[in-house]
Amino acid sequence: MRYDITLVVNGIVRRVGVPARRLLSDCLRHDLGLTGTHVGCEHGVCGCCTVLLDGEPVRSCLTFAVTVDGRQITTVEGLAGPEGMSPVQRAFAECHGLQCGFCTPGFLCTATALLRQNPTPTDEEVLEGISGNLCRCTGYQNIVKSVHRAAELMAEEEGR
């Protein structure tokens, strides 16, 4: 049996029919063709599948698509604005906060939510904020630098 759901994904209303047990990560990737959301562990441990649900980071591999009917979802594809990359994306590129890139979409979504809640986090707050995301390639130093640089870029854009 399929259930018709409506999702607002990256600002676009999308209707899709899904089985009751379809995970949000699979709906985004396979039904909607948004392959930026990566699936790593499929147990909610690695954070690669993190997307923003009504602005809050969630593990899309643990979320049934039918449970988010009518909600706002932002994937990594939706972080950039019409002018190009978001401050968080620019900072990760500038500070080498990515290596192979597999975990990057989850980190970008997590960092975006973190900086919305706390625009000037300390090192400890950044480490706590990204602690649910795993990277197998880095020692996290450049990821932490990237989050701080993104905070600077966001402050510059807002004139702080």
Please explain how this structure is put together.
- This protein is α+β, with helices and mostly antiparallel strands.
- The chain folds into two domains: 2-78, Roll (Ubiquitin-like (UB roll)); 87-158, [2Fe-2S]-binding domain (DNA polymerase, domain 1, Orthogonal Bundle).
- It is 34% helix and 17% strand.
- The chain has five helices and five strands.
- The chain has helices at 24-31, 87-94, 104-117, 123-129, 141-158; strands at 2-9, 12-19, 50-53, 56-59, 72-74.
- Strands 2-1-5-3-4 form a five-stranded mixed sheet, with helices on both faces.
- Helix 2 crosses helix 5 (141-158).
- The longest helix is centred in the C-terminal third of the chain and has 18 residues, at 141-158.
- The protein is globular.
- The termini are far apart.
Helices, strands, pairings?
Blueprint (H helix, E strand, L loop, with lengths): L1 E8 L2 E8 L4 H8 L18 E4 L2 E4 L12 E3 L12 H8 L9 H14 L5 H7 L11 H18 L2
Parallel strand pairs: 1-5
Antiparallel strand pairs: 1-2, 3-4, 3-5
Helix pairs in contact: 2-5
Note the main attributes of this structure.
alpha+beta, 2 domains, 5 helices, 160 residues, 5-stranded mixed sheet, Ubiquitin-like (UB roll), DNA polymerase, domain 1
Give the uncertain stretches in residue-range form. Answer: none
CATH topology of the largest domain: Ubiquitin-like (UB roll)
| Percent strand | 15-25%
String of helices and strands: EEHEEEHHHH
Q: Main sheet, how many strands, which sense, barrel?
A: 5 strands, mixed
Query: What is the overall number of helices?
Result: 5
Q: What is the count of β-strands?
A: 5
Q: Write out the strand line-up for the largest beta sheet, numbering strands in chain order.
A: 2-1-5-3-4
